[in-house]
Design goal:
The chain is mostly beta strands. The protein has no helices and eleven strands.
């Protein structure tokens, strides 16, 4: 059974930083690309970032234009965990952040972690 558990969200001031984590289980984590999405209040879920199974050379991480240069996705295959480092946060980054994987013929999602950027 695929499980994705996000953590690390919270309240942060504009310009601040957070690191989100997603602990994965129930599938061969090291063989799968992982993604982060977010849902802002009143908006549809949007893509944030993707990292390939190798995490680097030959399959560079990708980012939405809105977060490029501010967010960094990484992974630790030994810990079955994917991370999202959020820097230079803006109020418009306020959202529930979700971890995602496509495996076994379907999309799987965690329950999300809330990030609130406010002074």
């Amino acid at each position: 059974q695929v499980q994705l558990v996000e953590s690390g969200g919270g309240l942060v001031q504009p310009g601040g930083s957070l690191r989100l984590s997603c602990a994965a289980s129930g599938f061969a984590f090291a063989n799968h690309a992982m993604r982060w999405y977010r849902t802002a209040p009143g908006k549809l879920r949007e893509y944030v970032a993707r990292i390939g199974h190798s995490g680097g050379a030959g399959d560079m991480p990708g980012y939405a234009d809105s977060v490029k240069g501010r967010f960094t996705i990484s992974r630790d295959n030994g810990k079955n965990t994917v991370y999202l480092q959020l820097d230079s946060l803006k109020p418009e980054d306020t959202a529930v952040y979700y971890c995602n994987v496509w495996t076994g013929g379907s999309d799987h999602w965690g329950k999300g972690t809330l990030v609130t950027v406010s002074s």
